[in-house]
Structures are given as structure tokens and as C-alpha cells.
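Need residues for this backbone.
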């Protein structure tokens, strides 16, 4: 029965994908060129991971292998305006990487022109602290998030201070209503179920004149919202999708009910037809430091054989 449901879901997704592709091309020629860069692919703690003495992180410390938490950056040409999608604990290195990849210099105390936040878990917003007067002392950086996330930032220190000192300018985005954080870039927030202790959680679809990219680094099991995956993927050219755990066996000491994420094996089963039809479109990120898909060459080869891909830090997409 599960196979029938998954196949039906994949066929529905394929229809929506190819129907939506034509719509993505209808943007006006006057819009500026946009480039998107992946600035991080790991779960909130990155790699190597604090407190991990397993081979995955011991080896990373010895070799210098470093993966930053999941994060994207967008540059608008020719103005050089920058959007940071997530403010992770590694924001200093990630903004430097974005500026380097975008060939943008002399930013001074305005490291980016706007910030987009998905939710209030540590790997996604702690970097805002570096915008404060102790570090960058920014001035009124537009910070887009849901109304509940905005209220959390206004009501809790140290984020409240950044708002009161006008270092951040909170801009609330409503679900499924497109807004433009950069000229020519349309972003749509789609609520997704997740552990929402402090704020709700959003996925984002980022649309330029040529392509649409989905960013959904955190979500609970897909079956909590049966039609959501179809909505998220419809009309999308590239999808960056939550891949925290491969099959769950890599974290036997953790109760996965407390840190719910869709297993990669489940996501691949649901999107098998899509990946086969459009290899490389589904790109996994937000991988936990212990995830087999970061370390096991056989696992990586198999998922690539099926048409999936692991996002790479520094990779580029044209929007």
C-alpha cells in the first residue's frame, strides 16, 4: 500500500514540476541577474561537532575538514546587493565566503543588505548577535521572518537590543504572499511543521527571472502534512531539502522522537520518480555530523545513482 501511495505522490509531483517550469520563465527581462550560493550544508552544530569523539569528527579535526551549518546567500547584479538566508553561529565565515563568491568587497559595517530567517533553532538565528554593537554594529539591516519569529526577537534578549538599537529592522512576511528582499527576487514563505518551541518554521521558495529554488532545511516527518511535499516542490528547479539523518541508525543514542526530521531514505522513496526524471534537482543539506551520506562513499554513490545529490559548500545556482 505504501508503494502505491509513494508512486502516486511522485507522479503528482512530476506533473506539478513540469507545469510550473513554464511559469518560471515568464519573468521580465528588466530584472537584474541573481546568483545563489550554498554557504553551509551541515546541521546546526556543523562539522566537526562539539562534544563528538566519534571517527566522523575526530577525523575532521585532524584533517581540517569543516562544514558550516545550512545557509544560502544571494547576490543581485549589477548592484552587488547581498541576501543572507539564515544567520548561523558561523556567520562571520559564511558572510566572508558569500562576499568572496559574489566578488563583492568594501562592505564595512553593512555585511549584507538583508537577512531571511526560517525559525528560532540555534543553527538558524544565533549569528544575528554578531550584527550587534559588540561586533558589526550594523544599521537597520532588513530581517525577514514570520510574525511569530519577529515577536520572539522583539521580546527576548539579546535580540531585543538589536531591534531597539535599530541594528536590525524586522520585516514580517506572511505565508504564501510573495515579497522582494532584493530587487528581482521574489520569495514566498510556506509554513512547515517542526519543533516550534520559540517560533514557527518556514520553508522558502526563491524565484528569479530564470529559476526557482526551494529551501527547506528543517521539517518534521512528511506524513505530518500529507500534501505539503507536493506544494513545496511544485514549479521548483532546484530543491535544497532537510537531510539531517540518513536512516536513523547513525544516532542510536538519541531519541529521534525528540528531534524529528524526515529520514533521507524516506524522502528518497517519496521523490524517486522526480529524481529519476531530473537528476541533481533534489539536493540534500542540513546533514547531521554523523550522517552516512557525509562519510560513506557507497551511500553517496547509491543516492547519486538514484538521481539525488548532496549539496556542496560553495556551489552556485543562477536564479
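Answer:
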Amino acid at each position: 500500500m505504501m508503494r502505491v501511495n509513494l508512486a502516486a505522490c511522485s507522479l503528482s509531483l512530476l506533473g506539478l514540476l513540469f507545469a510550473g517550469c513554464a511559469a518560471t520563465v515568464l519573468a521580465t527581462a528588466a530584472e537584474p541577474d541573481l546568483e545563489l550560493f550554498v554557504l553551509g550544508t551541515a546541521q546546526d552544530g556543523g562539522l566537526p561537532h562539539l562534544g563528538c569523539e566519534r571517527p566522523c569528527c575526530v577525523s575532521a579535526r585532524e584533517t581540517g575538514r569543516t562544514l558550516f551549518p545550512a545557509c544560502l546567500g544571494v547576490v543581485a547584479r549589477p548592484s552587488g546587493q547581498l541576501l543572507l538566508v539564515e544567520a548561523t553561529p558561523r556567520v562571520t565565515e559564511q558572510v566572508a565566503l558569500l562576499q568572496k563568491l559574489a566578488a563583492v568587497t568594501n562592505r564595512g559595517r553593512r555585511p549584507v543588505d538583508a537577512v531571511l530567517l526560517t525559525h528560532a533553532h540555534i543553527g538558524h538565528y544565533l549569528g544575528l548577535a554578531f550584527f550587534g554593537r559588540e561586533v558589526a554594529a550594523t544599521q537597520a539591516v532588513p530581517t525577514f521572518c514570520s510574525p511569530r519569529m519577529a515577536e520572539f526577537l522583539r521580546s527576548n534578549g539579546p535580540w531585543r537590543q538589536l531591534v531597539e538599537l535599530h541594528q536590525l529592522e524586522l520585516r514580517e512576511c506572511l505565508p504564501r504572499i510573495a515579497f522582494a528582499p532584493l530587487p528581482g527576487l521574489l520569495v514566498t514563505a510556506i509554513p512547515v511543521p517542526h519543533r516550534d518551541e520559540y517560533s514557527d518554521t518556514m520553508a522558502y521558495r526563491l524565484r528569479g527571472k530564470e529559476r526557482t529554488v526551494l529551501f527547506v532545511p528543517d521539517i518534521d516527518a512528511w506524513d505530518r502534512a500529507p500534501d505539503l511535499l507536493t506544494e513545496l516542490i511544485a514549479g521548483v528547479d532546484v530543491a535544497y531539502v532537510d537531510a539531517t539523518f540518513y536512516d536513523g541508525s547513525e544516532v542510536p543514542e538519541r531519541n529521534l522522537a525528540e528531534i524529528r526530521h524526515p529520514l533521507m531514505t524516506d524522502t528518497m522513496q517519496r521523490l524517486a520518480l522526480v529524481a529519476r526524471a531530473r537528476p541533481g534537482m533534489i539536493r540534500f543539506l542540513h546533514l547531521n555530523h554523523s550522517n552516512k551520506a557525509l562519510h560513506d562513499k557507497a551511500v553517496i554513490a547509491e543516492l547519486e545513482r538514484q538521481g539525488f545529490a548532496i549539496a556542496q559548500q560553495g556551489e552556485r545556482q543562477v536564479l
